[in-house]
Specification:
By secondary structure, the chain is an alpha/beta fold. Helix content is 45%, strand content 18%. It is built from 13 helices and 14 strands. The strands form four sheets. A six-stranded mixed β-sheet has the order 7-3-2-8-10-9. Strand 12 and strand 13 form a beta hairpin. The longest helix has 22 residues. It is globular, with a radius of gyration of 22 Å. The protein starts with a strand and ends with a strand.
Amino acid sequence: MDWIQINPQLFSSFPPDSRYLVGVSGGRDSIVLLHCLFDLGYRRLIVCHLNHQLRGHSSAADASFVQGLVAKYNGKIVCQPSRKIVGQALRLPSVRTGKRSAYPTTRVANIDLELGSVDVRARAKRNKISIETAAREARYSFFAGVAKRRRCHTIFLAHHADDLVETFLINLFRGAGATGLAAMREVSTRRIEDVDLTIVRPLLSVWRDQIDSYVRERRLKFREDASNKNLAPLRNRIRRRIIPYLEKTLGRSIRQNIWRTAVIAVEEENWIESQLPNSDTPDLSVRELRALPFALQRRTILKWLRAQNVSEIGFEVIERVRSLLDPATRVAKVNLAQDRHLRRRAGRLFVE
């Protein structure tokens, strides 16, 4: 099988003896992530599972499965240290790196579990957003709540290379700029309510077929989500229709080429964002924004709106905000998602 390679420089920033959250749905991707983290010596994990209440008994069965999985990991006796992860690429599962201690110590894993439940369909109807958007917002709100309560603000998520390609295409088809095309990053910080959550995606260079091979070789059990076969959500149509058509028409390397473009976009966006002004202020100066080039106006507004926890920020929203910079504009209000508003008053922009 193809080896799953994980960047050791990424993990050097997140030592295994610290406490971390990890999102586990019960699907194969998150099961592989949890297995890899455990194999790398991460023993103080807090598994976070949210029941979206979208699939009836199947959703409840997913939660029960994750609960049993955590109990299974906690029953394992493990050797310390199990492997070295700093200084060279780690290849799983076939090649072990580092040396075992001549006198290995043993310990039982201390993996906690946080279960949550939310009626995503009702949330979508209440906030007038799609099921997919409501589910994503519910998950991150749940993660932020756990992070605040547990005082643990770093979470591992199982997004992989195919997810990166699909997200890139979704944002491209929606007319996103460079910022949207670089939306999925290996390490990012997202402000959710009053929590700054660090999101780590160690599998972004791992393809779905590699994950499938890993599952088969290790005989890992997982939950199958039947809704992944539903072609109504745009992501599923991209995955099952658009990408196979592109590969058939343009060649089998198209996924790798899109992935490379997305990675380049992320690296460039990271640098550009580091040059932008601080977005922690509760308001923005109209005069200072007006003095910036159009491209910087858009990026500054986007970064600031994200810091204000505004959802569904698209090009149209940013352009409506930019229209308030014109002193001749008589309208001083922009409607935002979830019944929020942005206003211009006394030369300042603020969200309420």
